[in-house]
Design a protein that fits this description.
By secondary structure, this protein is mainly α. The chain is built from three helices and no strands. Helices cover 67% and strands 0% of the residues.
Length: 111
């Protein structure tokens, strides 16, 4: 029963991450004055690497374009969130290593 709940939670989390990734990719492509449909290229192996380099490295247009007005400047909270995001990945990796190790330690200690 617990495995079923975990699988459903994992599936819902994966769908949420995909949704956010596609939304961010589409917004970035619109900032570059490209069609959002190019975002599906992130699902093609090897092509996705070049797509991410393009999205990360090329400057967007200044001012509005056919996809809308220029986005507002980043707030302090946007910058704090951007700095904390890598920390969540690091903490996730540490937790993935530390929790099983601690569990093995408790079993070995007889607890």
């Amino acid at each position: 029963m617990n495995e079923d709940i975990g699988i459903v939670a994992l599936l819902l989390s994966y769908i949420l991450v995909l949704w956010i990734a596609l939304a961010a990719t589409t917004q970035r492509l619109h900032d570059l004055e490209k069609s959002g449909w190019l975002g599906i290229l992130i699902f093609i192996p090897l092509v996705n690497i070049f797509m991410m380099i393009y999205l990360y490295c090329f400057a967007g247009l200044i001012g509005g374009n056919q996809y809308g007005a220029e986005p507002p400047a980043n707030t302090v909270w946007n910058k704090i969130g951007a700095c904390l995001l890598p920390l969540t990945f690091i903490l996730g990796i540490v937790a993935a290593v530390a929790i099983p190790a601690y569990s093995d330690y408790v079993k070995a200690a007889g607890g």
